[in-house]
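[agent] plan:
  1. take the single chain provided in the ticket
  2. run structure prediction with default settings
  3. attach structure tokens to the ticket
  4. add a short note for the reviewer (M.T.)
[agent] executing step 1
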Amino acid sequence: MRCAQFRTALSARLDGEPSGLPEVRLDKHVARCAGCRDWLTRAERLRGRVRAGAADGPSPEWSAGLLARLGEDRPGGRGPDDPRGVER
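[agent] step 2 finished; step 3 output follows
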């Protein structure tokens, strides 16, 4: 079995889904494989960052920037707060 298959199983386990592999086999592989151990450490760190960011929600500055960029894509460059409304 290749590391990619173990990493898919580890990803599923991180997401609370069935890994598709016996847990003992998965744990033994991680204990022996430095590459998968490193991958798991980075995946756990990323999951923590994503969860922390999701709990806080986007900042007002980020939201304002996004809305401004969306407005740039509209015909005539009219943003969502443009008093002239949306062109049809």
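[agent] step 4 note for reviewer: Residues 57 and 63 are 10 Å apart (CA to CA).
[agent] ticket updated
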